[in-house]
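Quick start: load a record and inspect it. Here is DUF4180 domain-containing protein:
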Amino acid sequence: MAANDLLTTHGVAVLVCDEDGRKLSGGDTALDLIGDAMGCHAEVVAVPVERVADEFFTLRSGVAGDVVQKFVTYRIRLVIVGDIASRVADSDALRDFVREANRGTQVWFVTDRAALEERLAPA
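Running the structure step on this input writes:
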């Protein structure tokens, strides 16, 4: 089982998932992470891109929609951490999804933990 760390950044509790562990591949795995977050009172779950199933990035598979819907329902923010530039370059739909997600407050795609900390900083 993968170890997760609970960190507080700018007053926001963030559950930082380890690279090893079950892939974020649908609603069930999303609910597992949401349960972990609720158990430690985290507001944000940061998942490394290595731990996200390939199907998530193929939007027509429905995996991303299923995962995001679960996080929105439980009011836990989801952050995918890592380089997805090659995936975005290969898909106009994914590029649009990432751009729109990053404009909001519920789901973000960031390149690294420093970028996450910057996003969490007060305005």
